[in-house]
Amino acid sequence: MKKVIVIGCPGSGKSTFSGHLSDIIKLPLYHLDMLYWNSDKTNVGKEVFRERLQNVLKLDNWIIDGNYGSTMELRMAECDTVFFLDFPPEICIDGVRKRQGKHRPDMPWIETEDDEEFLEFIRNFEIDSKPKILELLKKYHEKDIIVLKSREEADIFISRLKVIE
Predict the structure, then answer these.
(1) Sheet with strand 29-31: strands edge to edge
(2) What is the pLDDT of residue 165?
(3) By percentage, how much of the chain surpasses pLDDT 90?
């Protein structure tokens, strides 16, 4: 594993999983949200975001966490390993609610309340976003693809990796 992407529904724990993975395999971690968002909840614009992402992709090794469908294929083409946290929407909504009010290294602000539009995106993830992810996974089948279906599976994977390292 030299170039890793971690994808999945918002609230699935991509950033937490990526942080643990980074600690174990000693690769630098880049959060797409930190490349895209400003602390005032405005974004940097598509051109700046793509330039920042391209600068990361040029590096010899990395872990990139986040979805951003417009750049997912670009990242998938460059990576050697894909982790897809394929959790049910209700688990992801619970994850979003549990992180409210907490500082996170993957976001430039602290979420304090439900965002109904965001929660609706999560509810519709399996219909709107997951099929596109599955198509890309099929297209890039030569990559090392690890699909984790629950927080427990993700925790077990990390625990086993700690033993190996």
Answers:
(1) 29-31, 62-65, 3-8, 81-85, 144-148
(2) 61
(3) 84
